[in-house]
Write a structure and sequence with these properties.
By secondary structure, the protein is of the alpha+beta class. The protein has three domains: about 100 residues, Acyl-CoA dehydrogenase/oxidase, N-terminal domain (Butyryl-Coa Dehydrogenase, subunit A, domain 1, Orthogonal Bundle); about 110 residues, Butyryl-CoA Dehydrogenase, subunit A, domain 2; about 150 residues, Up-down Bundle (Butyryl-CoA Dehydrogenase, subunit A, domain 3). The chain has a four-stranded mixed beta sheet. It has a four-stranded antiparallel beta sheet with strand order 2-3-7-6, with helices on one face. Helix 6 packs parallel to helix 8. The protein is globular. The two termini are about 15 Å apart.
Length: about 400
Amino acid sequence: MIDFSLTDEQKALRDLARDFAKNEMIPKSEHHDHTGEYPMDILKKAWETGLMNLHIPTKYNGAGMGDLDEVILAEELNYACSGMATAILANNLALAPVLIGASDEVMKKFIEPMTHEFKICAYAVTEPGAGSDVAGIRTTAKRVGDEYILNGSKMWITNAGVSDWLFVLAKTDPNAGHKGMTGFIVETKTPGVIIGKKEKNMGQRCSDTRGVTFEEVKIHKSQMIGGEGDGFKIAMGAFDHTRPAVAIGAVGVAKCAFDHSVRYSNTRTTFGKPISSNQAISFMIAEMARDIEAGRLLCWQAAWLIDNGHKNTYQASIAKAFCADMCVRICTDAVQVFGGYGYNQEYPVEKLMRDSKIFQIYEGTSQIQRVIISKFINDGKGIEHPNN
């Protein structure tokens, strides 16, 4: 049986997120885009409303929501402003590897407090010379007694400047390749953790993106996530949970661009009639609608699979690649629909076009998704549905 209906709880979550996006995010979106100011007040309200840290298990006082729940939520928030949404949802990315591999001790010390106190965390894996090639990281963690000494640097870390702790991937055995990597929780107040300047990016300008340097940072062995050498597997496994939500973020941005295009094309007239009556415009908008629907279904499928115990790496990569590329194309077409006005900052689609590009880059580039998809196909594991 195939059923695309949402539960009453999921409908309530969608409506809650939609109201929050409409009343809290959209009115301030332009301000935060122009100033680059971090939307801390928005995050605090999102936490108070129950829109952050969705996946913390009920055992630790969390909501215990699934990945499909986050997908439903993320589309609504990204529709309003993907910069704010990235800031709000970044906790879920940092939490993902921790929820996969953390001990009960770590969960009680670092994760359970996040359910009764507003805290921010960040996923610190990317390095200046190792983005898509995670196995190429150079940050090291050397065991000394009951501690590890962390040295190295990370780059493009979302929420780094406002985080209470980081999930950090480091090499504990530099000679063991990806099997020599280990994950740790590192508190940002620890001596030797140096947070860099806020980067000025093309889009999602209010998102806090920075480099992080570690100089002789001492971490107790109890802050290890999983066992020594499990870091790469845990960090990559986290993407199966987070990529559907990032992909649906692209759907949300594309849907916003689509709605603006429909409204504008129905009111803008040329040669005595709305431009929506011209086939060149109407077909462009029809293709937007087609691809948004397809993208949403891909995200729902990828999230449903992992929520129901199936491996979803293949489907998550397809969703991420399709939705990222689709979003950039739709936002570019929206600017075209608006014509000269679309190129102007006083009109909304200019921002959407800038915001869209990052979806092809973060959480695994569109090219890396194609590498993953190709590998599944070449290994004979693609196309066939896991239920077959």
